Amino acid sequence: MSRAEAIARITGYFDEGGFFADLARRVAIHTESQEPSQKPELYRYLTDEMRPSLEPLGFECRIFDNPVERGGPFLVARRHEADGLPTVMSYGHGDVVRGYDDQWQEGLNPWELKKVGERWYGRGTADNKGQHTINLAALSAVLEARGRLGFNVTLLIETSEENGSPGLREFCAAHKALFGADVFIASDGPRLAPERPTVFMGARGVFNFDLTVDLRAGGHHSGNWGGLLANPGIILAHAIASLTGPTGEILVPEWRPPAIPNSVRAAVAGLEIDGGPEGPEVDPDWGEPGLTPAERVFAWNSFEVLAFKTGNPDNPVNAIPPRAGAHCHLRYVVPSDPEAFMPGLRRHLDAQGFGMVEITPAEDVMAATRLDPEHPWARWAIASLEATSGKAVAVLPNLGGSLPNDVFSEVLGLPTIWVPHSYAACSQHAPNEHILEPVSREALQLMTGLFWDLGAGGTPAD
């Protein structure tokens, strides 16, 4: 059977309802890793759904407990056809964020896959059950069409990604022998634009921290004490304002990356950020001056205030609050040094007269990673996707968001290729999460072509 026939087979799987049925079963499992009470559901996803789906394809499956108590289990599935063949490692995460069941649009349920027009709604459709379901179906289509894959596969499914991937680094470091491979190929995150196939080879890192101004034990009447007591909300607002210019330009030297490499600048040249018809409009004058929107999100660092609280926002009273706090983070690119972020912030705040602002960094940090767009595996993957789609593939040196990619690129030492199957306005992590029907159908074709090519010879591993 030919490559074209394999792609026709996967297209029939989608058109005849096979993909919808597989994804519906997986969406129905309440794998909310941020809820400790749902840990049995994390195990159930692996034992009752993943293992029965993989073993008929010739995978040997093992389920491992997480070495970190708050982490969920791992499934490692291996199909070894022959020594000397290329070996690919793939990955997905079966956990999801909280369902927020009562916040979805009328008629929608986060645990029931529902088609409305070209949108398929359900928790995990975009992040990440839909994406790894596409990749597993593509592997199955190649196996059925060819009778073999023509390469070896090691698949890792984790169940704590939405909780910060606790234990993933330790598990992979302790079991390196399970994950020997030539290349890592997986799917998560959004395409650059819904209609444009996309690859990225790393991710921006994320560094979370809290800023706090705590001045006294309790609030005091603003009529009696206004003008006499320092207001922590005002102090913290000015402290935060000192960190960037009025349009978001970063002013802390240690938070600014070096110059953008020429290969990265060339890769993102001409890329347009498009979240789809209901996505937000890009603010053209926000961020680092002199950079294009694509450079600002894929090749530069950004600072964000995610939450700011002082007093009682829901029921304000006429009192000067005793405390103010903000939860903030940096998204950062290679080669920024996260070890320098907090010392640099402390020096900056002290120099600006804000020594009273306390800094508390989060324990979990996702590192920044990036594979050169000219890497042989990157060029091979791009060529395969373009051959299937007939479209120019958007090539991102790294995703604007964050993934535990450093575990695969640094701990396991693999070149990492991500082929995302979602889009930026998919409402992942929010109510009404969904995938787009035409994107999913095309993604199945793209991954079937990619896996067919991987077993056909001529890869960088040959």
The CATH architecture of the largest domain can be given as 3-Layer(aba) Sandwich
Strand content: 15-25%
Number of strands: 17
**CATH top-level class of the largest domain:** Alpha Beta
Concise summary:
The chain has 462 residues and is an alpha/beta fold. The protein is built from 13 helices and 17 strands. Helix content is 31%, strand content 19%.
List keywords for this structure.
462 residues; Aminopeptidase; Alpha-Beta Plaits; 2 domains; 13 helices
What does this structure look like?
It is a single chain. The longest helix has 18 residues, at 129-146. The protein is globular and about 85 Å long. Helices cover 31% and strands 19% of the residues. The strands form 5 sheets. Strands 1-2-6-3-7-16 form a 6-stranded mixed β-sheet, with helices on both faces. The chain has a 4-stranded antiparallel β-sheet with strand order 11-13-9-14, covered by helices on one side. It has a 3-stranded antiparallel β-sheet with strand order 4-5-17. The chain is built from 13 helices and 17 strands. The chain has 462 residues and is of the alpha/beta class. Strand 4 (114-116) and strand 5 (119-121) form a beta hairpin. The model has no long low-confidence stretch (mean pLDDT 95).
